[in-house]
Amino acid sequence: LPSVYSFDGILVFGLLFICTCAYLKKVPRLNSWLLSEKKGVWGVFYKAAIIGTRLHIAVAASCLAMAFYIVFLK
């Protein structure tokens, strides 16, 4: 398992954050509560959700590549 302070850990954290926010965007109650702000600190969640939904193929491919790297190469 990669540590958070390595480059691998930062990539894993970023991918999981984007995937989680994209999933939360599909849940109606959480979407209105968490992703309503588009600016400021809470806007990071909104922007990650937008990245996850618009670039879903690239994010999924990145998740698969990172999983392959962690399981087989590291």
Automatic annotation (TrEMBL):
Question: Has UniProt tagged this entry with the keyword Transmembrane?
Answer: yes
Q: What compartments host this protein?
A: Golgi apparatus membrane
Q: Which GO terms describe its cellular component?
A: Golgi membrane
Membrane topology listed for this record: Single-pass type I membrane protein
Nucleotidyltransferase as a keyword? no
Q: Name one Pfam family in it.
A: DUF1242
Write out the transmembrane intervals. 6-24, 44-72
Which InterPro entries has this protein been placed in?
Answer: Kish-B, Ksh1
Keywords from UniProt, A to Z, are:
Golgi apparatus, Membrane, Signal, Transmembrane, Transmembrane helix
Q: Of which family is this protein a member? A: Belongs to the KISH family.
Function, in words: Involved in the early part of the secretory pathway.
Q: What is this protein called?
A: Protein kish
From which organism does this entry originate?
Answer: Dicentrarchus labrax (European seabass)
